[in-house]
From TrEMBL:
This is peptidylprolyl isomerase. Residues 493-521, 531-566 form the EF-hand domain. The lineage of its organism: Eukaryota, Metazoa, Chordata, Craniata, Vertebrata. Its EC number is 5.2.1.8. It is an enzyme of class 5 (isomerase).
Length: 571
């Protein structure tokens, strides 16, 4: 434009202002919709585009504030497709680009509203319309499920597949954040099968591939949710749904017991089988890590037979083949545990998968003998221990997990005992037979040959015991019931020889002197004991039948004679 032309244009504009043309403060009739985005959410994942399905609320008023329509008054949102001519042009334009939860003021001029005709009885001709709109939902028929993993456990050995049974918690909201349901408020998980039509399609798909303990956000478009009908009063028609899901556990009805060997001893000579009695510690948890029971908290092992139906089937199976000292994880599906009903006493929900972390302390079979391992046997071992022999030995006693119980080394002298005299447990007695002096053995004693189900001071009930024994010395014993035996035939005139002063009575000192002489000359031997004087005193007391301090000819009797009379132990 030439300089002269610009001056002429400026003069014309001024004249128009003087003559009453619209000033800058009054723009006159609107040419397009006026949009005031007075609230924009911080997060806008999606904006409404031409062809999108939308749900929104609105109030419609005239310039003076008089209301002509409101979705709120009808108690229902408006749903439709934007930008395809199904709305008045001004609304079509004004809704495009909106985010969910965004709020706008729209001013729609008449030619973009109802024009010069209006709506009879509602909107006069050439009316400018004012709308206050909030966007609630946006989706498109081409939309897919939107899955966001919020957190995932480090260990994930298995993920959800179709036909699995799942237990999960969830919060359900509409796309604008309005809550409609929550499993947490009910205090229990939602339990169902996946991929069998029991869930809406979007949830069926959204749970696939999840790990136990995983958290997901699942956004489901209406056509994969409740569609045009909605659900009751809580889910409107054509509503997108947002689920925040925590998968608590899952299993398949075809699942068996899953075993994970956490620690297996290098030496495993024997594995548990059906009929064995097992003592083990355990922690029992749900798949989300919730502890429901622990033997450690009671400071006592759980003791039971396996394969006999005394415990849940999954544990019966899971303990098969364990070694002493093994640590094993046993994952048990509900149909091999407490089923649909759970176990309230132990805080186990219905249909819960159980995880037991087991530490096997020991096991045995009621038919087990003493297990004997010879660690060292001296050369030229010709004389071995027999029943009724008197032995001295050292020992260390422990549980099979290495827990130390007792040791003869804690005392000044070795342990002393007469074998077969019921002074030690049966298993130890058996393990000390046929030993040489200087021999060392390891004995594994099952509880039925040890301290039994009740245990003893410091020994748990039904515990298998391990003894390290070393035979220090042995003395040949005498038959049961005897305190002294002759190496040959006893003297024919026994009383006369025993009555040293020939006064017709044998006091204790004469008796003691006579017996000691027989032992010294190798003619007989006393029952082995750490206190020979006590043995001789017991012999005298047995012979002094009237307890008058001396033995008469009528009182003195040989043990062989007394066995027939069944009176009492004697010579």
């Amino acid at each position: 434009v030439a300089p002269g032309s610009r001056c002429l244009l400026l003069l014309l504009l001024l004249l128009l202002g003087v003559l009453g043309a619209p000033a800058l403060g009054d723009p006159g009739p609107l040419e397009d919709v006026v949009i005031d985005r007075y609230y924009i959410p911080k997060i806008c994942l999606r904006e409404a585009q031409m062809g999108d399905f939308i749900r929104y609320h609105y109030n419609g008023t005239f310039k003076d504030g008089k209301k002509f329509d409101s979705s709120y008054d009808r108690g229902a949102t408006v749903a439709g497709v934007v930008g395809v001519g199904r709305l008045i042009t001004g609304m079509d334009r004004g809704l495009q680009g909106m985010c969910v939860n965004e709020r706008r003021h729209l001013i729609v001029p008449p030619h973009l509203g109802y024009g010069s005709i209006g709506v009879a009885g509602l909107i006069p001709p050439d009316a400018t319309l004012y709308f206050d709109v909030v966007m609630l939902d946006i989706w498109n028929k081409n939309d897919k499920l939107q899955i966001t993993t919020l957190s995932k456990p480090e260990r994930c050995n298995r993920t959800v597949e179709n036909s699995d049974f799942v237990r999960y918690h969830y919060n359900g909201t509409l796309l604008d954040g309005t809550p409609f349901d929550s499993s947490y408020s009910k205090g229990s998980t939602y339990d169902t099968y996946v991929g069998t039509g029991w869930l809406i399609k979007g949830m069926d798909q959204g749970l696939l591939g999840m790990c136990a303990g995983e958290k997901r956000s699942i956004i489901i478009p209406p056509f994969l949710a409740y569609g045009e009908k909605g659900y009751g009063t809580v889910i409107p028609p054509q509503a997108s749904l947002v689920f925040s899901v925590l998968l608590v556990d899952f299993h398949n009805p075809k699942d068996g017991v899953f075993l994970e060997h956490l620690e297996v001893p290098e030496s495993c000579k024997r594995r548990a089988v059906t009929g064995d009695f097992v003592r083990y510690h355990y922690n029992g948890t749900l798949m989300d890590g919730t502890l429901f029971d622990s033997s450690y908290s009671r400071n006592q092992t759980y003791n039971t037979y396996i394969g006999k139906g005394y415990i849940i089937p999954g544990m019966d199976q899971g303990l098969q083949g364990v070694c002493v000292g093994e640590q094993r994880r046993v994952v048990i599906p509900p149909h091999l545990a407490y089923g649909e009903n759970g176990a309230g006493k132990h805080k186990i929900p219905g249909s819960a998968v159980l995880i037991f972390d087991v530490h096997v302390i020991d096991f045995h079979n009621p038919a087990d003998p003493v297990e004997i391992e010879t660690v060292f046997r001296p050369e030229g071992c010709n004389v071995t221990t027999r029943d009724r022999d008197f032995v001295r030995y050292h020992y260390n006693c422990s549980l099979l997990d290495g827990t130390r119980l007792f040791s003869s080394h804690d005392y000044e002298k070795p342990q002393e005992v007469t074998l077969g005299a019921n002074k030690v447990i049966e298993g130890l007695n058996s393990g000390l037979l046929d030993m040489c002096a200087g021999e060392r053995r390891v004995l594994i004693v099952p509880p039925h040959l040890g301290h039994g189900e009740s245990g003893a001071r410091g020994v748990p009930g039904s515990a298998v015991l391990r003894f390290e024994v070393e035979l220090i010395s042995m003395e040949e014993g005498v038959p049961e019931g005897y305190l002294f035996i002759w190496h040959g035939e006893p003297p024919a005139n026994l009383y006369e020889q025993m009555d040293l002063d020939k006064d017709g009575g044998i006091p204790a000192d004469e008796f003691s002197t006579f017996i000691k002489t027989q032992v010294a000359e190798g003619k007989g031997r006393l029952m082995p004991s750490s206190d020979p004087e006590k043995v001789i005193a017991d012999m005298f007391r047995n012979q002094d039948r009237n307890q008058d301090g001396k033995i008469t000819p009528d009182e003195l009797k040989l043990k062989s004679d007394e066995d027939q009379e069944k009176i009492h132990e004697e010579l």
